[in-house]
Design brief:
8 helices, 34% helix, alpha/beta, 4-stranded antiparallel β-sheet, single chain, globular
Length: 244
């Protein structure tokens, strides 16, 4: 995980969410939410199931329609933009790998569909594979990989986009405790090397404290506290944050 990156690969962008509202039928899942994600920071959205953290992440990604408010990425209004126009990479809870494709083909699939030059695809895949210690596994298929290796491929598939923002929706929750600890450490190193903007959803307090530059604690679609890990731990703003 110590492969240095050329400066041209270090792409990052901030995210600005203003007055965001999301409604499913008559239910307001998120209402009047404001959030600023600085360029290059690792922001963790933390809270119990149903608090709106994944809905917020999916709104940033353009996977669900927002009812009100705006979302800007890299200073550009992306509120109504399609997901593939937002300059993001996303890693989901499930690996969602194509079982008949090799690791290399899985990682390059989106780039090939977009019609990218073959030489550029190879450059990105090789660089990302080296970063994630997947070099020796590029010709294997998902069935030949461990759970941790599969999740690395899923992360690599997002990183090859060289997007300004990477979004993670509880990517480690399906792994056992040992693998979660290992991949948390690798994600931390990955962020330090890439210097890209990362927004990460979890309900795991240890995960949040380990990874975050800042933590956003959420409850019932509202932000309860935003702060550095030590601030949230040592000086909780209310009883919910203290208890959670």
């Amino acid at each position: 995980m110590n492969t240095p990156l050329p400066s041209a690969a270090r792409v990052h962008a901030g995210v600005s969410v203003r007055g965001l509202g999301v409604r499913f039928g008559a239910q307001h899942v998120i209402q009047g939410l404001d959030l600023e994600v600085a360029e290059g920071e690792f922001l963790v959205l933390l809270g119990p199931s149903g608090c709106g953290k994944s809905t917020l992440l999916h709104s940033i990604a353009g996977l669900i329609d927002v009812t009100e408010g705006s979302i800007a990425i890299g200073g550009q209004d992306m509120t109504d933009a399609d997901p593939n126009e937002r300059g993001i990479g996303m890693v989901f809870q499930s690996y969602a790998l194509y079982p008949t494709m090799t690791v290399e083909r899985n990682m390059s699939f989106g780039l090939r569909v977009a019609g990218m030059d073959r030489a550029e695809i190879d450059r990105r895949v090789q660089r990302t594979a080296a970063l994630l210690q997947l070099d020796a596994l590029l010709q294997r298929k998902p069935s030949q990989l461990s759970g941790g290796q599969r999740q690395r491929v899923a992360i690599g598939r997002a990183l090859v986009r060289e997007a300004g923002v990477c979004l993670f929706d509880e990517p480690l929750s399906n792994l056992d405790a040992k693998l979660r600890t290992e991949l948390r450490r690798e994600l931390k190193l990955l962020h330090q090397q890439l210097q890209s903007t990362m927004v990460y959803v979890t309900h795991d307090q240890v995960e949040a404290m380990t990874l975050a530059t800042r933590i956003v604690v959420m409850r019932a679609g509202k932000i309860q506290q935003i702060g550095a890990p030590h601030e949230v731990y040592e000086r909780p703003d209310n009883l919910f944050v203290a208890g959670f």
